């Protein structure tokens, strides 16, 4: 199969050779446009001026020419832009979708949403799910990290941007490229008020994910306003094939409309005006408006993705402006830092609200990159800027359009403060790391800089500054942060459970699942559809297959033992100890009730712990993985710090309170689009779930798409004990727990262990924590006394102070004194008692 780049290149040549068949030429000509070929880049374009020789791209036309001279008499602010866009297309019959979260939980292939088409991939685009209308608009906040180094410099680049989408999903016979072009052309000319003579329309092609088609890009005075992708074909082994559902994907950067229509020197002041004003006030920086208006038309040329030699571009711009490079940079770079801080704080607000967390791995790492870039600018310039204050200001400004961003601002503040603490810790380590590096090598490569940042958080600016002090030159790549971001483009779950599948089975209908409605369905009658070696497929089953972190059921088919169960593409396969079943046989199934109950209790408890962790820790908590065995359950959650004993106790109490209140567990089957519309993206707590229909399990506010065995009400869990927690990676905390019979056994084990520890210390159970702490303190005192020869030291153990708590809590307190685990206490205490007695003997 060819790459998307190869497909795009080939199709673009074909489309350019046959424009009438691939572009809306009829409407272009009807509106007076003539086709031309750019003398600079060789691309084809359409314009009203038949003699025009260059296309509309700023690189070919000499930069932006709308600064201080917008092409339209209409003026739009940021919020007014969406109102006008929405009004225009709703009059044409388009349905308005609300934005989706920027973390693409519903997709297995990406972490961040990168465009307005993402919410409709893959199911709507493939025709598996019908959209609410075939013609839709959506304002979709999106994040891309490939342009980090350009943010602030070019005046136009963003990590977080709002993509205004005009989309169609049509059968081939109803697909009307001419109509879609005319409707968007109407928005540009009538809605935005740009005269047709100010428009240059480019021919291009697009390819991605195996699909492709022609596209048209709309330019005015050097700025690309938006582009329409006419997604009509897919790539196969046999060649190109028309899609059964053809798509129009028009994406227009929201931020560009107010910038273009106001003719400002940069887009940041028009995108977040109140934050820009706040930053000017805090920093005391006053832009040289006259210089910036002259500079910004050239700023697009500083795009690190397109410029081969950034230093030369700076020199060329300075020469054109008749100013020295040093003076130009001294005016531009502080502004670029200010705008970057403003932009990155907005991106952080959106990402954190939508349940992303900064991390050292996966998509969360890119979020950490921009936060540390912003904190680095604040540090370098010595500005007193609080990112959480900026986030709150962004939320306030965006309230009319995105009121949800004003929710949970306190949670956003805590996460940002935690990131600042980690940044300062990394900064403190950096000097020693850099010093060690220079002592080993006189040269620092770009790869070394990336690795230093990636592994230890050492900023390249710090390395460059330290190197300069030692007379060593370090070249920091212009696209440094983009290089780092490339390493962490895809997120992954911390834990997962699935069976490897190698069997070749015939095409069968999907297995009817009998445990979805009630976990107590333990016996059933079924028919054998397929049997080979030790494997059997039935038309229906109550046996649960290993999946979703939960172990499989065991039991009997007639009198034959079922020892394993797994699932593949909707078919459940039973692995038999000895198999004599044949296709067509009627069988009676029996599931082991004790195993089923315990696994059900641990699986339901995973949902319950997730619910309570969110209530105790905050709305940023998201399930990152889970495992449920007979012995215990474990839940991995997103959280920015280790959990304290108090937090674990609060989560456990919350769980048991809900069990005592007998909270119902609701289970329902819903079409995917209905489930998403009714409950939102939180249904994907356990990750992407395939299928057109989803089983939704609700426990209070915790609503998840899940196929596991679940209680009918929480009273069936009997009780829950949290065993402890650990930080398994940055941003991921693992909570271990037991429920049901396992919890009862654990309580008995704790009580027996406490009794054993009590005997070792010679005190009552309630006196164990205080006596354990006393033992440790007297042991330390004895060591010091021995060193100093203090024979009169008081080393007797006399504490009888009592404390309240469960056996588990009392043991945890005692274990904390010795930095050990409760199960190691008897041996640890005996060792310390023996050593203390030895010290006493030497001091006598």
From TrEMBL:
<dbReference type="InterPro" id="IPR045864">
    <property type="entry name" value="aa-tRNA-synth_II/BPL/LPL"/>
</dbReference>
<feature type="binding site">
    <location>
        <position position="710"/>
    </location>
    <ligand>
        <name>Zn(2+)</name>
    </ligand>
</feature>
<dbReference type="InterPro" id="IPR012947">
    <property type="entry name" value="tRNA_SAD"/>
</dbReference>
<dbReference type="InterPro" id="IPR018163">
    <property type="entry name" value="Thr/Ala-tRNA-synth_IIc_edit"/>
</dbReference>
<dbReference type="InterPro" id="IPR022429">
    <property type="entry name" value="Ala-tRNA_lgiase_arc"/>
</dbReference>
<dbReference type="Pfam" id="PF07973">
    <property type="entry name" value="tRNA_SAD"/>
</dbReference>
<dbReference type="GO" id="GO:0006419">
    <property type="term" value="P:alanyl-tRNA aminoacylation"/>
</dbReference>
<comment type="function">
    <text>Catalyzes the attachment of alanine to tRNA(Ala) in a two-step reaction: alanine is first activated by ATP to form Ala-AMP and then transferred to the acceptor end of tRNA(Ala). Also edits incorrectly charged Ser-tRNA(Ala) and Gly-tRNA(Ala) via its editing domain.</text>
</comment>
<keyword id="KW-0648">Protein biosynthesis</keyword>
<dbReference type="GO" id="GO:0002161">
    <property type="term" value="F:aminoacyl-tRNA deacylase activity"/>
</dbReference>
<keyword id="KW-0820">tRNA-binding</keyword>
<dbReference type="InterPro" id="IPR002318">
    <property type="entry name" value="Ala-tRNA-lgiase_IIc"/>
</dbReference>
<keyword id="KW-0479">Metal-binding</keyword>
<dbReference type="GO" id="GO:0000049">
    <property type="term" value="F:tRNA binding"/>
</dbReference>
<feature type="binding site">
    <location>
        <position position="603"/>
    </location>
    <ligand>
        <name>Zn(2+)</name>
    </ligand>
</feature>
<feature type="domain" description="Alanyl-transfer RNA synthetases family profile">
    <location>
        <begin position="83"/>
        <end position="749"/>
    </location>
</feature>
<dbReference type="GO" id="GO:0004813">
    <property type="term" value="F:alanine-tRNA ligase activity"/>
</dbReference>
<keyword id="KW-0547">Nucleotide-binding</keyword>
<dbReference type="InterPro" id="IPR018165">
    <property type="entry name" value="Ala-tRNA-synth_IIc_core"/>
</dbReference>
<feature type="binding site">
    <location>
        <position position="607"/>
    </location>
    <ligand>
        <name>Zn(2+)</name>
    </ligand>
</feature>
<keyword id="KW-0694">RNA-binding</keyword>
<dbReference type="GO" id="GO:0005737">
    <property type="term" value="C:cytoplasm"/>
</dbReference>
<protein>
    <recommendedName>
        <fullName>Alanine--tRNA ligase</fullName>
        <ecNumber>6.1.1.7</ecNumber>
    </recommendedName>
</protein>
<keyword id="KW-0436">Ligase</keyword>
<keyword id="KW-0030">Aminoacyl-tRNA synthetase</keyword>
<dbReference type="Pfam" id="PF01411">
    <property type="entry name" value="tRNA-synt_2c"/>
</dbReference>
<keyword id="KW-0067">ATP-binding</keyword>
<dbReference type="InterPro" id="IPR009000">
    <property type="entry name" value="Transl_B-barrel_sf"/>
</dbReference>
<dbReference type="InterPro" id="IPR050058">
    <property type="entry name" value="Ala-tRNA_ligase"/>
</dbReference>
<dbReference type="GO" id="GO:0008270">
    <property type="term" value="F:zinc ion binding"/>
</dbReference>
<dbReference type="InterPro" id="IPR018164">
    <property type="entry name" value="Ala-tRNA-synth_IIc_N"/>
</dbReference>
<keyword id="KW-0862">Zinc</keyword>
<dbReference type="InterPro" id="IPR018162">
    <property type="entry name" value="Ala-tRNA-ligase_IIc_anticod-bd"/>
</dbReference>
<comment type="similarity">
    <text>Belongs to the class-II aminoacyl-tRNA synthetase family.</text>
</comment>
<keyword id="KW-0963">Cytoplasm</keyword>
<dbReference type="GO" id="GO:0005524">
    <property type="term" value="F:ATP binding"/>
</dbReference>
<feature type="binding site">
    <location>
        <position position="706"/>
    </location>
    <ligand>
        <name>Zn(2+)</name>
    </ligand>
</feature>
């Amino acid at each position: 199969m060819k790459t998307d780049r190869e497909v795009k290149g080939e199709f673009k040549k074909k489309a350019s050779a046959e424009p009438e068949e691939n572009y809306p030429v009829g409407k272009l000509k009807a509106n007076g446009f003539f086709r031309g070929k750019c003398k600079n880049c060789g691309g084809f374009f359409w314009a009203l001026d038949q003699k025009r020789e260059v296309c509309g791209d700023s690189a070919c036309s000499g930069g932006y020419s709308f600064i201080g001279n917008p092409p339209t008499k209409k003026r739009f602010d940021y919020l007014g832009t969406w109102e006008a866009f929405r009004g225009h297309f709703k009059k044409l019959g388009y349905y308005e979708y609300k934005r989706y979260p920027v973390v693409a939980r519903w997709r297995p292939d990406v972490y961040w949403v990168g465009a307005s088409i993402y919410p409709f991939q893959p199911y709507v685009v493939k025709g598996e799910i019908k959209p609410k209308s075939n013609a839709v608009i959506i304002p979709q906040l999106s994040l891309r990290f490939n342009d980090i180094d350009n943010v602030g410099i070019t005046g136009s680049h963003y990590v977080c941007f709002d993509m205004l989408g005009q989309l169609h999903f049509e059968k081939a016979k109803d697909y009307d490229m001419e109509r879609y072009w005319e409707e968007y052309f109407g928005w540009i000319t009538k809605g935005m008020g740009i005269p047709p003579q100010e428009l240059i329309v480019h021919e291009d092609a697009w390819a991605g994910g195996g699909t492709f088609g022609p596209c048209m890009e709309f330019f005015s005075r050097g700025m690309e306003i938006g582009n329409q992708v006419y997604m009509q074909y897919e790539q196969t082994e046999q060649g190109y094939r028309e899609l059964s559902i053809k798509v129009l994907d028009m994406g227009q950067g929201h931020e560009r409309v107010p910038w273009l229509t106001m003719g400002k020197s940069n887009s940041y002041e028009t995108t977040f005006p109140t934050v820009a004003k706040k930053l000017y006030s805090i920093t005391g920086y006053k832009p040289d408006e006259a210089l910036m208006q002259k500079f910004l038309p050239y700023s697009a040329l500083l795009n690190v993705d397109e410029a081969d030699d950034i230093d030369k571009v700076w020199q060329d711009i300075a020469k054109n402006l008749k100013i020295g490079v040093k003076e130009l940079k001294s005016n531009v770079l502080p502004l670029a830092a200010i705008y970057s801080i403003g932009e990155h704080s907005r991106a952080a607000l959106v990402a954190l609200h939508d349940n992303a967390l900064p991390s050292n791995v996966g998509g969360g790492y890119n979020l950490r990159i921009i936060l540390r870039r912003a904190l680095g600018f604040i540090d370098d310039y010595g500005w007193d800027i609080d990112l959480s204050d900026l986030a709150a200001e962004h939320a306030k400004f965006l309230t009319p359009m995105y009121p949800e961003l004003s929710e949970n601002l306190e949670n956003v503040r805590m996460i940002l403060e935690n990131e600042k603490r980690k940044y300062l810790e990394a900064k403190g380590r950096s000097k020693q790391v850099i010093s060690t590096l220079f002592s080993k090598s006189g040269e620092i490569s770009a790869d070394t800089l990336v690795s230093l940042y990636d592994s230890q958080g050492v900023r390249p600016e710090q390395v460059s500054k330290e190197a300069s002090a030692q007379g060593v030159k370090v070249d920091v790549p212009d696209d440094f942060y983009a290089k780092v971001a490339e390493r962490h483009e895809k997120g992954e779950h911390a834990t997962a459970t699935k069976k490897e599948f190698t069997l070749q089975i015939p095409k069968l209908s999907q297995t009817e699942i009998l445990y979805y409605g009630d976990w107590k369905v333990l016996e059933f009658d079924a028919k054998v559809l397929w049997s080979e070696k030790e494997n059997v497929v039935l038309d229906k089953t109550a046996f649960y297959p290993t999946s979703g972190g939960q172990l499989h059921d065991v039991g009997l088919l007639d009198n034959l033992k079922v020892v394993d169960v797994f699932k593949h593409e909707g078919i459940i396969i039973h692995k038999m100890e000895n198999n004599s079943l044949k296709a067509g046989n009627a069988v009676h199934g029996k599931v082991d009730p004790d195993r089923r109950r315990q696994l059900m209790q641990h699986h339901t408890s995973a949902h319950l712990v997730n619910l309570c962790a969110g209530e105790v820790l905050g709305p940023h908590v998201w399930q990152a993985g889970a495992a449920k065995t007979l012995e215990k359950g474990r839940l991995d959650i997103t959280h920015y710090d280790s959990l304290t004993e108090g937090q674990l106790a609060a989560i456990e109490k919350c769980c048991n309170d809900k069990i005592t209140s007998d909270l119902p567990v609701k289970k329902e089957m819903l079409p995917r689009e209905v489930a998403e519309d009714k409950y939102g993206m939180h249904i994907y707590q356990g990750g992407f779930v395939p299928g057109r229909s989803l089983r939704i399990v609700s426990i209070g506010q915790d609503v998840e798409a899940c196929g596991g065995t679940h209680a009918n009400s929480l009273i069936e869990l009997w009780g829950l004990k949290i065993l402890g927690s650990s930080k398994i990676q940055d941003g991921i905390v693992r909570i271990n727990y037991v429920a049901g019979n396992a919890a009862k056994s654990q309580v008995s084990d704790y009580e027996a262990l406490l009794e054993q520890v009590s005997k070792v210390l010679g005190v009552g159970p309630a006196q164990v924590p205080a006596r354990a702490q006393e033992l440790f303190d007297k042991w330390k005192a004895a060591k010091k006394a021995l060193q100093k020869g203090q024979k009169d030291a008081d080393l007797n153990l006399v504490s009888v102070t009592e404390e309240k708590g469960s056996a588990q809590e009392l043991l945890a307190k005692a274990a904390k004194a010795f930095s050990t685990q409760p199960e190691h206490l008897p041996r640890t205490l005996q060792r310390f008692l023996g050593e203390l007695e030895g010290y006493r003997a030497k001091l006598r």
